[in-house]
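Structure (tokenized):
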């Protein structure tokens, strides 16, 4: 299945979200964030829940970098996992 790239806004910039085949990531996740390129890459073989979880993780990296929060990897991991657990539910609750 060919997945469509898309864009996300952040702090007056546009992040390109790109699907990449067989992406191998250096922090053992199938995604990465590049501040230099304003891009998030996701492995195109991910399931929808996996892709959503990894996208939240990479978006957390983006926010940390762009706003200078300097969050550590373990802080990013916990933040993203916490948001992921609540996100699916609250998107349904708020009409
Ligand atoms: Zn990470």
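Design, position by position:
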């Amino acid at each position: 299945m060919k997945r469509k790239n898309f864009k996300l806004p952040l702090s007056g910039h546009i992040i390109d979200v790109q699907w990449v085949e067989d992406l191998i990531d250096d922090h053992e996740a199938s995604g990465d964030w590049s501040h230099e390129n304003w891009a998030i890459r996701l492995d195109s073989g991910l399931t929808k829940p996996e892709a959503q979880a990894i996208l939240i993780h990479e978006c957390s990296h983006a926010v940390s970098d762009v706003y200078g929060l300097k969050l550590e990897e373990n802080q990013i991991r916990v933040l993203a996992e916490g948001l992921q657990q609540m996100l699916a539910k609250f998107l349904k609750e708020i009409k």
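Reviewer-requested clarification: The first strand starts at residue 6 and ends at 10. The chain has a mean pLDDT of 92.
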